[in-house]
Amino acid sequence: MTAPQLRAFLKANGEAFSPNDDLGANTNWQKAIEKDNAFSQSHNIAISGGTDHSDYIASLNYANKEGILLASSLQRVIARLAINQSAIKDKVKLGLNVTYSNSNSDDVPYRSVTLLQSALYLPVSPVKLPSGAYFEDFTNSAYYNPVAMTNNSTLNTKYSNLAGTLTALVKLPFSLTYNMDLSYQSYITNQGQYLDSYYTDNFNDMYNNPNPGLSGHSQQVFGQGGQATRAAYTNTSTLFEDYLTWDKHFGEHHINAVVGYSWQDFTNNDGFTVTTANFPADNISFNNLALSNPYGLTGFDVTFGADGLYSQSRLISDFGRVTYDYNQKYLLQASIRRDGSSVFGADHQWGYFPSVGVAWRLSQERFMLNQNLFTDLKLRASYGVTGNATGFSAYTAQSISGNLGTYYYDGTTTAALGATQEANPALKWEKTATSDIGVDFTLLKGKVGGAIDVYNKTTTGMIYSYAVDPILVPSGSVTANGGSMNNKGIELALSVIPVATKTFKWTSSLNLAHNTNKIISLKNPLFSGGDSVLLADPEGAGQSGSTVEILKSGKPLGQFFSLEYAGQNSSGVSQYVSSTGKLTTTPTQGVDYHYLSNAQPKLLLGWANNFRYQKFDLNIFLRGTFGNHIFNATRADLFRPATAQYDNILEDAVHETTADYNSYLYSSRFVESGSYLRLDNASLGYTLRNVGEYIKSLRFYVTGNNLFVITGYRGIDPEINQGGLAPGVDYNNFYPKTRTFLLGANISF
């Protein structure tokens, strides 16, 4: 609410602001932490050339983008070089591809906390007092001036990414071809964060605001006199792959066979983090940690980041594939992979993953020769099994020891070490079996084309961190195989040329996808929690432990499981349906919960249209999801009429009463439709050709992104996280989605 709205609301309920807060201001705190306009620029230059036996292309891109939040920005340089050289009468071809990018970004430390505070802070308070000092009211718990948080902290991250690939192709006798690829990638992150003395002295002991998931927020304890953190990490990946191909035609028969070997090594988080405090001056920032004096602070210790970040893993594969086709009419492909990964238990590091696919091009059959409808028509079916070795630590299957606090022994406090992770030698590959039936078609001499696919995917042996009986496993958890999940659906891709003349052409492409997800099982022999897991705890004030989703067999990911809202009682207090069906104003967490809707969309849409008229071109792309729901925990935490004296509330709470002390409880009241249709991108261009002696073409264009969105969702934006174990929860971790306009020119020489 604005200051007049909030003041009128309190007056209507016989209440008023504290004189400490009401200084007659009308501050829009969300606008206060944002820039009025954010400008960006991007420049790209490319050079290419070659001979009969060689070619090259080199490009350089520079981008400078201002973020919508104060102090946020991104500068990036990307350089690319690709060279191909043929030799020995083109029987040998060598290739080199190198890409280097360097980025320098500024952001806001504890950004999600700052965004939350901008929504909560009372508009009747000013950003600064007449003295120039920031306005603060620390009598209100967890209440911080978001502009002060932004302007008294710094977060800078530099990224450096080098990727290089060397390829070799050798044509051998007997229709054989040998390929070799050698790749290397290095990703370096260098980050510095500084919270100045104002920040550390005033915002100490605040809670962070992470995405809701399996773990909640935690208290942040800062050192006095400013606190600096430096982190420098390198991730590297090395890949060697070689394969031999035999490609042979026997009349109308064609066989292509491949056999190969792949070796890949990953090293992640090779580096360090250090946090120290108590600097003589704030302008040192994070640039000289040696000037800090952490030992002059009582109860503060220099820290070195999280345990167990460094990891090294290896993936080795043997593979073979055979493809056969008869006159491009009947096609058969079969493959087998033998993959080994070091992340699994010692006796289960290897897995076998077969696949087979068949296709029949009906359009080449005799009974189709006299028809004029189909230009091409192909039926196909496939089945394959893939394995997953990512998404968890490289040492998940191994026993790890760490610090478990201290104990008192013989008059001395001694560090206690013990198992923080249990070994699981039985950990093995997570497998997904997929069957697919599809049809590819082209109609009306190429004016209509598309594909329809119906698929069924079942994942077994899902890798998950299970809570287990500490008597069996002292650490209380173990990562193991256990659950299974199914996804089935249908996908449609359609491309149409509705109009094509000498001066005007319109092409349209539509993609539709429907997926149904269901958890089949979560069981594991050691799992002590049955076959369900409560998760997604937004942790709003007074609601710690109030989860809003459940992992449950027979239910999909993103299944909302919370209180069922039943309106207000005669006293104007929100009431809820208990587990016995009765109404209550004092529901119990986890007991009086009900299954609500879920976050899974019923339909995904992407629709691209391209129009060309003489020298003009117009491209429009729309995107949307339909049938999904969002748990608007952000709205719930701002729907607190009983606390309007101390925190801002939503405009749609104006008809509520301050007597409703539990209107904000997470419940079906805050489950909303997440359907939307967004005009994602539109670009209008005008092209001139042969401009002068040296310019081949000159194209001017204007592009708009995120031009509008049609939705009934009442939150900031309906496009929120739909991945992971806890999709579809909106909890104060939004970053304002911007509407951008771009003016540009492409010049070809």
Overview of the structural elements:
- It is built from 6 helices and 33 strands.
- The chain is mainly beta and 749 residues long.
- The protein has a domain at 532-749.
- The strands form 5 sheets. It has a 21-stranded antiparallel β-sheet.
- Strand 3 and strand 4 (92-107) form a beta hairpin.
- The longest helix is centred in the first third of the chain and has 10 residues, at 3-12.
List the topology elements.
Layout lengths: L2 H10 L16 H4 L7 E11 L3 E13 L6 E15 L4 E16 L3 H10 L25 H6 L1 E20 L3 E20 L1 H6 L24 E24 L2 E25 L33 E16 L3 E12 L8 E12 L12 E15 L11 E10 L2 E10 L8 E14 L4 E20 L9 E24 L3 E18 L10 E4 L13 E4 L6 E4 L2 E4 L5 E4 L5 E2 L9 E5 L4 E11 L2 E11 L2 E4 H5 L33 E3 L2 E16 L3 E17 L17 E2 L9 E9 L1
Parallel strand pairs: 28-32
Antiparallel strand pairs: 1-2, 2-3, 3-4, 4-5, 5-6, 6-7, 7-8, 8-9, 9-10, 10-11, 11-12, 12-15, 13-14, 15-16, 16-17, 17-18, 18-26, 19-20, 20-21, 21-25, 22-23, 23-24, 26-27, 27-30, 28-29, 30-31, 31-33
